[in-house]
Amino acid sequence: MIDLASGTEIKRFSTHRYPEQVALSRDGRRVYVSNILPHLGSYDQPPVSELLALDATKQVVAERILIPGAIELRHIAEAPAQLGGYLLVPLVRPKNLGPLIRVSQGWVLTHGMAVVRPALHEPVGEAESKVTEVLLDDIDYYFAGNDGVAFTPDGRRVIITSAEANVVSIFDTAKLARRLQQVPAEELADRLDSALTFVVARLATGHNPTAVVVSPDGLRAYVANRLDDSLTVVDLAHLKVASTIDLGGPKCITPMRRGEQLFFSAKYCFQGQFACGTCHPNSHLDGLAWNLETPQLGRDRVANRTLRGIRDTAPYKWNGRNPDLATQCGPRIAKFLFRSEGFNTQELEALLTYINNIPLAPNRHLAPDGQYTEAQERGKAIFYRRHTNDGRVIPVQSRCETCHPAETHYTNRISTEVGSATKYDTSGLLDTPQLDRVYEDAPYLHNGEALTLEEIWTVFNNYDTHGITSDMSKEQLNDMIEFLKTL
Ligand code: HEC
Ligand code: HEC
Fold it and tell me: Largest CB tally within 10 Å, which of 124, 176, 182, 428?
């Protein structure tokens, strides 16, 4: 929270991971913040996401509204008072606990919105908002990447963007209300026959429509096409596209931009179910463990991996079996993920150009001048230590820097066993992960079992098979983690 007059920070609140949008309630009493990534939790339970509600007057957290079974909360729209002032928040419902081979049966990643009735009148800390989830997909075609959402001023209609389907859907709020009454909430969250009862139009937009606003007279909606430099203008009276406004972006589409458009397009997947960007939001990761195609279903669950800064970190995948990005993103994706013909040669080339150039985020834990804090300095010495606290020599193969050398993004690019495999893993040989910006990559280890950096050693390194850490004091481990966050 910043004081606009003086420009000084008054207070800092903890959101959850990747806070995405912020919205002030119409009465000015609440500030809502949506989060892209779910809570860190057990990898065999459905994810739970959080919509943070702040009390604007008392300047405290009023409620952490839990949205079960969902990830990637995006924009927040509040219904006009005459409709009861509920909130709509677009989301994704991933079925990551089931095997991904079910793509051909549908229903692996579904896309919809949370209908949140905020408990505005309860005392702070005692509020419990009511959350219902409704899908916007059809039974045989999906609308991936719901992102922007806006009500018309009279509250009769809602416009919601499907950023990965290049579509906006317009629906009737009276019909939505009827649907919410007719079907019990527990059932509604997974029903694919809802949208047809309240959606009145689906209109094509440009690439990656991520946000929408409605004009104050309620006649027009303006949709921002993020990867096109254009606006789609929707005529709300006639439910059609009125025009497209070119914002004057470059006319020559570089392979980099084409690749980004493809990365965020669900059209290559069977029934438009998802895009690369659905599981890799912000070209990063979704914080989930997935059961991808394996010979034995239910085994070899793998945590998602970031795509940032991965150009020189081959081989790919936790099992280190994919020698290069072309193999990882081409035929493999078409066969195992998209269940389609996938990308043609030119498209694959553009996609690879994009993936090869996704930058790392700036480091939040390192001072701009690169100077370490005292704790980071101490942690560095521990990372590079060659002796245990009692003076024993640490064998070369057990030193952090042997497997995680600084010169090559902190990975020696080979697979090793560090005792982290479980009985559900076919092999204990795992790719040594790069550690650039590792603080962003939770949950950790190949199966996402370690929820924090600490747990990699406090819970999963009981026998010193992953570096020698059992002699470390708690302070030393803390310092080492401070250093890891600077990478
Ligand atoms: C259903 C969710 C999902 C979708 C959709 C998805 N990925 Fe992934 N991706 C994952 C998971 C999980 C992993 C980790 C797999 C493993 O290591 O075995 C991964 C790993 C990767 C890696 C390897 C990164 C590394 O450092 O090893 C690349 C590259 C990648 N994905 C690119 C893509 C591209 C390109 C697309 C779209 C064509 C895509 N992904 C779509 C879930 C997904
Ligand atoms: C023998 C090689 C080896 C040594 C020594 C080693 N590591 Fe690792 N490291 C690995 C492998 C392999 C994995 C992946 C394990 C898994 O996913 O289950 C890993 C995983 C990690 C991760 C998790 C990254 C992620 O994205 O999940 C971190 C952090 C890490 N190591 C840091 C260290 C530190 C610090 C040390 C020294 C105390 C160390 N490693 C010693 C091979 C090694």
Answer: 176
3-state secondary structure of 16: coil
pLDDT score for 294: 66
- Domain 19-205, CATH among 3.30.420.40, 2.130.10.10, 3.40.50.720, 3.40.1380.10: 2.130.10.10
- The CATH classification of domain 374-484, taken from the options 1.10.760.10, 3.40.50.150, 1.10.357.10, 3.40.630.30: 1.10.760.10
Q: What is the pTM of this model?
A: 0.95
Is the CB of residue 279 below 6 angstroms from any atom belonging to ligand 1?
yes
Q: Which of 403, 422, 452, 464 to mutate to test the pocket of ligand 2 (most atoms within 8 A of CB)?
A: 403
pLDDT band with cut points at 50, 70 and 90 for residue 16:
confident
Full DSSP string of 67-99: EET-B-----EE--GGGT--EEEEEEEE-TTSB
- The Å distance, Cα 433 to ligand 2 centre, comes to 7
Token pair, residue 15, equals 């959101």
Model confidence pLDDT, tens digit, residues 84-113: 999 999 999 999 988 887 787 778 899 999
The SS3 call for residue 243 is: strand
Q: Which residues contact 142 (CB under 8 A, 6 or more apart)?
A: 106, 109, 110, 111, 165, 266, 271, 272, 273, 274
Question: Could you tell me the distance, in angstroms and rounded to a whole number, from the CA of residue 304 to the centre of ligand 1?
Answer: 7
Mean pLDDT computed over 117-131: 83
For the chain, give every domain's residue range.
19-205, 265-272+281-356, 374-484
Which ranges of 264-344 does DSSP label H, i.e. alpha helix? 276-279, 325-329, 331-332
Residue nearest to atom 13 of ligand 1 (CA): 304
